[in-house]
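Minutes, project check-in
Item: structure for the 714-residue chain
Input as provided by the requester:
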Amino acid sequence: MHALALAACLLLAGCGKGPWNNPHPPPDGDKVTYYSVMSPAPPKHLDPAISYASDEALFLMQIYEPPLGYHFLKRPYELEPLGVERMPAVSYLDATGKPLPAERVDEAAFTRYHLTVRADARYQPHPAFAVAENGGARYHFDDPAEGRRYRQITDFAHTDARPVRAEDYAYAIKRLADPRAGSPMIGFMGRYIVGMETLSAELDAVSRDGWLDLREFDLAGVDVLDERNYTITINGRYPQFVYWLAMHFFSPVPAEVDRFYHNPGFAESNLTLDWWPVGSGPFMMVRNDPNSEIVLERNPNYHGDVYPSEGAPGDRERGFLEDAGRPIPFIDRAEFRLEKAVLPLWTKFLQGYYDRSGEVHGNTNSVFDRAFVVGPEGLELADDLADHGITLSPDVKPGIYYYGFNMRDPVLGGYTEERRKLRRALQIAFDVEEYLNIFYKGNGIVAHSPIPPGIPGHKGGAEGINPYTHDWVDGEARRKPIEEARQLMVEAGYPNGRDARTGEPLKIFIDVQSQAISTTSMNWIDRAFSRIGVQVEFRPADWNRTREKLLTGNTQIFSHGWLADYPDPENFLFLLYGPESPLLCNCDGANNASYERPEYDELFEAMRVAPPGPARAAMVKRMVELYREDAVWLFAYYPKDVYLNNAWVHNTKRHGISKNTLKYLRINPALREQKRRAWNQPVTWPLYAGAALITALLLPAVIAYRRRQRATAR
């Protein structure tokens, strides 16, 4: 009987709802849940004043609404109102604060931005807004013991909400100025927002015990006009300031939320703004367990929005406009599980338990050979993935990685025609196309200018090639032959790689970060330059030592990179601006090549404050020409990542700048469940076979035992 019972148990294990191996809890009713990952580590900061990492912005930008945002589909990237009703009204002021007419904006001492908070913006339900019977805040404590009674934000029985006000935006900017907050913006914004440096010094000198109400302190450059209107005044002209208004740093923070999180005893339980964000965006955080998962749910107070009805060329054909005009968000809940290794992530994705292969990273590099093949149209999915209905979302990052020349180096630097030809010969010899295919599996695009795709000023096609290193042949850019590089070496005074005057071989020195380069890639680079007779010596070091060399100009060739803060050519062309050289500014400047050309610097200074238009575009074009002419960088490429989406995921277009895209994502849960069942069919025959074997082995013994029992009874 025991054997039969065991067999029955084994067979019953095959009964149940859904696949046996589903790692997710059962869905909550009819709620549409999106399943994704946070990998390889959880976010460190979720305070909008402190956070400055893309994996943190993934969460913050679903919860907060800064004044401006980006159009989901349009390229080049385009700003649009988000937390405000319309784009800011901009006025220019003279030194006395009086408005200037349009023809005199060049004389502006200040620029003022007038913003109007949207009337329907309302915060998520939160205990910070809960009101006691006496009209005061319900959860304000003086005794730390009272605060320690609460461990999670869900422990509070009472919540409430209120509309977003202009004073909340002003309060958030004051938090950026507070040295105790530790915002990375304090120095940079202090140069622009009028009075911020003064406020920072004042706040730094204030002794405090607990919460400090920043409403009691004035910030000259931020003026609250009424409940929905405020202005920000900056020094001089800086048109790119509007892009900063699209970052979470400028999202509203209510004073009562700041006060709530300063309750004594809360910090011990991680009840802080750095752990539990509070916003007016489409989602709110309902669970934060960094060792397991972060869960977002739809904000019931969200003002609502609709899916865009226009996009970039080709978006309609790719299906990105099928939901035009429909209300968003489409999903009710998003669960982000911590996956420290790619293999289990990849397995669960193929089983249908993750909707996409990643968020901040595509997580496809380590399984690249299993996932992709090179077909006639370029990169294609392997057959087994294509049969799954999986789709590709290639993402060219708005950034650039490069190896630069030290323009002050006595051998490779300088601006004579001979030095330019020497650097061009090295540029041609370094076959970037082959390098990317071998070491990055093609996940990169050869950069012909410092400006990446999607950024105004980037040119594609024949117009966009670097004519010193490439030719346009049969509709594509083709690297110049190695024979041309050898001829340039002759003209530069280094025939066959030897100094024509001394007969000494030319040896170049490349500083590399030891953890970022392999012996194989160093061997490849050595072979590439040997074709023109040039010897290479690598100087590996850790990042701290490499940074020290960059700051002191003690390099010949170095590696570096830059990812956009905002989608403007100024954010890349400043990498070559003379005063940004660490040797000139005595700072951690971005111009590590120490490139100095007066024409470039003058153009940059004019372009930096010029409004968009043909005149500015002409300046950008000329600066790119100078960069190519002077051969400032050995090579450069735009990084590319590949994301995968299961068949039930829609509106998957990647946005290189904004992470505020979860609200556009649509899931077909019925198709997901159907595919999960098909891909995770249990293999039950071993259970049946095992049950039969156990029965066959035990049944004779059971029968014999019962016979003995009956004989004894007689």
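Outcome recorded: The mean pLDDT is 91.
No further action items on this chain.
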